[in-house]
């Protein structure tokens, strides 16, 4: 049996324990027809990433689920892996090269990719080591990378399949272009922020008249690419302009006035400029009216040569120059403030430039429909349910997905262009010739795929698909996806439609959403605010268990939580409390001690109370975990260990352990070991390291395994259900608490003992619990009576719901002080009584509330009235 050190030191325990788990192979489940599989796929962190509080919370929640299910007997698989993160990784490597005076072009594509793979090998595994420090019990033998050969094969297979089905196409469409990253990005990668802008009102002369029409715009520089102005056909103000032409100011080009229902008659003047090359709505209008598309911006957001005198200017400088010329030439009518949403790149924060470009797209409507239905019919459920709306809003309003990226790092698009016939060959493997004309003169598309294209396949590509592997057959579909609400559109939606389309099954049944980890003041952690906290620093100072527990207690699905040093210290203190309790129990075990509960007739009232309380806890914690109420479950285990086990059961057991009754002492030991063992199992998913270390020191029961993580999860046992005894001893503890509170308030030294009279109509529990009351309430002699008939003068009186206690301590205290204390108690009791009475006087409550709830309030009212009466009697007795 292992000996526990005097003090718990996470640094001496955690790394060694994790290696013990790894060496034992306990993270790797075997496919077992007799077991039910339970699978989680880790949201793959970027290889550029470093563990932050969001990762720590995400991984802790997943580990709680997987450890709980493992102990429940499931074949529990947690698949880890990392994402190649094309934009972020390429940007990091390019920046590193820039410092060396190099560019991508200097190295060429192959040279750059060699450097990228080298960078991945050097830095990409860093976050994996950090996840291990946290205690993540992933099956590292199944670790995947989005660009490993298996995942790459899956990507090429999906691309070809969707292309063959007509769901992937290449075409000119308006896309989101990041001028800084110099690549297209999808709608999901655009972050919108409200900015203070302006509306410029520009006069467009009407051809063949002296009239002009005022057009309001937020982007005057894009007028260089205008091909029409539009009015709503129902707008009577502009009926006379239908079919007319206007002159484009500064350019002199004649453009038509068109009518379209898209025009909002309330916006600006009700007349809008149409620039199909640089506005997604205008692009659609242009397609309806067969308008030309003029591209006026370069890829780095400068005006093209077609911009005349403005050519070469940045879009910001062009705006200033255009506005100045409009004003000079009399075309600028007015300027008004106008706050509006501006799209920015989620990676670099640069304002997005809508731009018409030849790109690859996924046709979303056919894929979105079944994915919408799968959530509406509860095949997939979001927790909390409110995030269903977020998902449905995204899917019901989705546009075709731009999947091509102008990058080198990533999955290169498996499409080859023929230099002779101009046709496209799409293939899973590199073709030797054009499939249309047989020419060998073919070249591959230069672009790569959106990172999220490969991530969308993660739940099944990681299990070996498109090969029909045994892992895929056994572990798919997965069960719970744990993720943040910020990537529902990016990732969750795409996994759902990909799983349904390629596997014929939803990839998971539950999407568990967690919130953000904020600082102690509720602010979002960020580098700019300087309030970020490195989880590794917290682990170094307090241990991984303390960090994990802090990230769980008080958390609820979908809601943000606050993180503070104070909370981590409380978690560390809890670990120390548990450690000291375990040491006490173990130090009081004799050689050859055999664990196991004694017969029921060998248990005293306190044993049955503790065991019954534990039994109730098992049921509640299990239910909380099934409902993903991790914060509630952790708090209940905390309360049981701190309060029931440490503060009561161990204290009550001390005189029994040193007493002359050997059978009573053995019963106390067996109950303590049973409760400690059970508490460790319930706590293990939350604090795996300390629970494993203590478990290794416990005397082994028959059939016990090598590690706590494979021990059975506790289940409720009817044989441990003693509700009457639990309630009865609860009254004893209520009395002890009440007497302790009065003694503390009156400043009575804990060592001072006195006699005590307990007046109660229910004497049995207090007679049975006399030993406990004597030890814990400072009583040297106890009398239990139904009615206290002696003189109460000079007696301090304490009221509980079922008893009144008389303690002759007034010689130790000031009588006036005692009267003041009782007056406070009376006021509190009267307030409680009034609140309960008000609820029962509310007809709506009495009629609508469940009968058992109403009865519970009535019972509380009766007890509150009795307590009030007893307090008043105590005041009267002091005269």
Secondary-structure-based class equals alpha/beta
Total number of strands: 29
The helicity comes to 40-55%
Name the overall outline.
elongated
Main beta sheet strand tally, sense and closure: 4 strands, antiparallel
Task: Characterize the structure shown.
The protein has 879 residues and is α/β, with parallel strands linked by helices. Strands 6-5-14-16 form a four-stranded antiparallel β-sheet. A four-stranded mixed β-sheet has the order 10-11-9-12, covered by helices on one side. It has a four-stranded mixed β-sheet with strand order 27-26-29-28, sandwiched between helices. α14 (488-503) links the parallel β22 and β23 (510-514). The two termini are 62 Å apart. The model has no long low-confidence stretch (mean pLDDT 91).
Task: Summarize this structure as a short list of keywords or feature phrases.
879 residues; alpha/beta; four-stranded antiparallel sheet; four-stranded mixed sheet; 27 helices; 29 strands; 44% helix; elongated
Concise structural overview:
Helix content is 44%, strand content 17%. The protein has 879 residues and is an alpha/beta fold. The mean pLDDT is 91.
